[in-house]
## 1
Amino acid sequence: MKENRDRYFIINFAASIMATVLSYGMNFYLTPYLVSTVGSEAYGFVSLANNMVNYASIVTVALNSVAGRFITIKIHEGKEAEADIYFNSVFWANLLLAFVSLFLFLPLIWKLELLIQIPENLTASVKLLFVFVVFNFLATVVGNVFSVAAFVKNRLYLSSLGNCVSAMARVAFLAFFFGVFPANIAYISLTATLCSVGLIYYNSIVTKKLLPGLSVRRKAVSFASIKEMLAAGIWSSVSRLSQVLADGLDLLICNLGVSAYAMGQLSIAYTVPTILSGMISILTSLFHPQQTYYYARGDTGRVILEMKRNMKFCGFFVSIIFAGAIAYGQEFFSLWVPGENIPMIYALSCISIVSVLASGVASALNSVFLITNHLKVNSLVWLGVSCFDAVVVVALVQLTGFGVYAVAGVSRVVGLIVNFIYTPLYASKCLNAAKRTFYPLLVGYVLDSMLLLAMFFLLKGALAPVEGILSFVVNALCLGGVGCIWNYFIFLDKEDRKRMKKIFLRRQEE
């Protein structure tokens, strides 16, 4: 059993890394082309559209955030019929929400120029962009439940495989649309919609193979099950509202309170922090199936052990990227988007990445609240924090000259403080563990990140100056290699190193 868990962990990890590298690699390749083709001002509306449409996820997340937990626990308890009821209840409820949302969104898009600042020459393109972003969001909502099967069976590599194919298809579609038709930012959301539909079809096949007992049947809908999941998931909606207030309003406030140009620069600056956040989510997700499994078995001690391993695993990689992004950020943006305001973008990126000093490992603890179904307090805490963020940001934009820098910095700094003080304490309480359970890891991660940052700047002075993409890649690989060696011997302890050898070399059973 343990050997199988390690084997699937390796496969899931490798597939997730491949999918992440491919997805973000495609984005790195495409973004300069898209910015030069449609302009940074127009490109900023892509992120704004996604953020604004995702406001609707405040409603949809109530069901979808807990669907995996309910279905997984029932499967592990051997109650597949009940799992099928949860599965169908989520699917049909999402379908109804999608239809209702569509009729709410379309009138808003029709008069979009009254809600946000849109340059006159971009009005039609931006509206079409929003239309396809809405379709993509609604398709994702409806098909979300089909991604549960890979989670339940701990076959996350299957989801990663689908994401790889989707990323490659996205490039092919964009090449076709921009190569055949006049440039239009709406192609970006159109290709995303097409890829999402294809991914839903793929996930439905995976569901049929892994969980043949689950199938779409209207008769299996249970309003009692929907009510039960909503009761648990309503706090996830509050958490999503918190995220919207803390992060999702950034570009909107920047558009309305500063300028469309500043919004475009901020959108580019958010690239690295967004990648880091995405990577943290991917790395933490690798541990969720086993954490849920052990909790369903009542083994809280093993859940805590898995949480600590999760924190170490995330911190190992994220600290290296964090230090490298600051040390070589200016060179990276100069090579990536040479025509833009590089000093401004680099400063905004450094400000926005500061929250990773805590969230790099603290994010792994967020699954505790979902697994233990203790979402209420966590949601209310972050809602209060986010309301405070929003008020402070608007005040600073209106009353001071900080402008876009206030938009980028306030929520990140406050998030850093809250993740360092509150998250580990409440996670320990939910697991009935000592208050200091997770603090040694958190403090060690912060110190490790700062030491790595100092060392990277020293190494940067010793390496040849970056004069092009090749020298940048060579220097980045040098820093990455040094960072891995440092973290292996300094950040990981003896037991961590021993377990890593057992897992990745598979020389003996755990």
Note: Residues 327 and 453 are 7 Å apart (CA to CA).
## 2
Amino acid sequence: MSRRRFESDQERTVSTDEDMLNQRKWEKLTADNAPFRVVSADGLASAPIDHFDALLLAQATSE
């Protein structure tokens, strides 16, 4: 069985193998139980609660 996957307003058919791989990746992400999901070079990844701290602090002012 194949499913449809949407990417940037485009639809494509996903093979059964790719669908199973995506399901395993999602199961891993949910098992991680991390507070954030971020896009990395490898795709979606779990991230800790302090993942964005440096970015946010860099934008903060003393006011």
Note: Strands lie at 3-7, 10-14, 36-40, 43-47.
## 3
Amino acid sequence: MSKNSLKKIRESILMSKAELARKANVSPITISRIEQGLPLLPQDHWHISYS
């Protein structure tokens, strides 16, 4: 995934960083880091909930 792909996808479905962070069980800061192409911190992890 390129640097801004996540942001483009998230914005195309009108989802906020906070909402995506809740669904992925990560912090909004983690979403920002991913969207900026920054490395994740060791404690960052993903758990996407489809509910």
Note: Residues 1-51 form a domain with the 434 Repressor (Amino-terminal Domain) fold (CATH 1.10.260.40).
